[in-house]
Amino acid sequence: MTETTGAVRKTLWSRARAIAEAAPPERNRYVDFLRALSILAVVVGHWLVAAPYMKDGAVEGGHLLGILPWTQWLTWGFQVMPIFFLVGGFSNGMSWAATLRKGGSYAGWYSGRLQRLINPVLPLFLIWTLVAMFGTMMGIERGIVAMAAQLALIPVWFLSVYLMVAALVPWTWRAWKRWGFGSFWAFVAGAVAIDVASLRFDVPYVNFLNFAFVWLAIHQLGFAWSEGRLAPGKALSWGVGGLAVLALLVGFGPYPVAMIGVPGSDLSNSMPPTLALLALGVAQSGFALALEPAGRRVLGNLARWTAVVLVNGMIMTIYLWHLTAFVLVMVAAWLFGGVGLDVAPGAPAWWLARPIWFALYIAALVPLILLFARYERADGKTDMETPHWRLVVGLILISIGLAATAAISIASPAGVTGVRLWLVVLPFIGAAVAQFGPVHRLARRG
Length: 446
What we know:
Number of helices: 20
Mean pLDDT: 87
Shape: globular
Structural class: mainly alpha
Strand content: under 5%
Radius of gyration: 22 Å
Largest sheet: 2 strands, antiparallel
């Protein structure tokens, strides 16, 4: 087994090294580094925040931020989804600009992106549907099944938002080319208006519009980065300014310290996002871009660059399956009589045990990566053009399915199967509508 594991590790590293060596010299390696760093920070944050423990013979779903309020400050560093949207803006801007130069179409461009992002999600949905279904039929308490399924599938909410933001790239890119930073400030103004309407005048549900305004604003900064409009010196001032605004909003405004939701809190800065999370995103983007020259020098080393390439090659798999690995370890601990779960979260012994638990999470995650990373490497059908109506309908069905999954879980409190089948099938139907069926080949030029 050790020899097999070593051989697999060597193969993965050799493949990543070959890709790293073949990368063109003009490629901005720092973009890939930030993408990998942001996802790994999310993984570590989730593994740290989730703090289940045994109480009266049952597993309680503890949350570190609620147990130790001082840890809420750590979310200013671990809530790095803004960095992913910054990187997305850079990559989408570069890719869309290249598509326009080559005379490509929106359908060809977006269908490829949609396929690369949704393909890794479908196996996750299928596996957890079977787990929830058979768990219910085997008599496991529905509440436990629902808690496990919802925890494992929390990461999919991000994809529903990102797919929508990517779908709007032709229009947001046009706005950037026409108004520059004015397009960013327009989205900021929208986020301000939404928070005022929601927090000052209690307008119901309007706050969900900030899923668009906040993330599109950060995405616009990615466009600015791709065109060299955020040089390190200027970026540093953006970072300082964003941090100052965040401190004012938290210190004198209605916004909580934590940049993610905390059980029992009346307001979440992330679900949906608020002006405070936007300020954090500006601060993180500014500081990250201020460090770009140093980062690119560090990545000039082939071994470090290979490590970045290796992580990026399986990044969606890591993100989507890391909480499944967490659940597997927790289930194993429970089956062994709650071993390791009798320590109160936040106690000194609990902190000392974190490296051991993290090693177990990683050990559970590696086989999942080896099994499911292949779906991430599937190539998008960039030589095919899907009719626009199919892309729109498919995107809507996928996004509703992913968002509802994160909100209410695929597990059902009633019914024979124990699964909300209507919810499970939405991403599959959406993917089929958007990717399969009648297509038209792009007209060959020349």
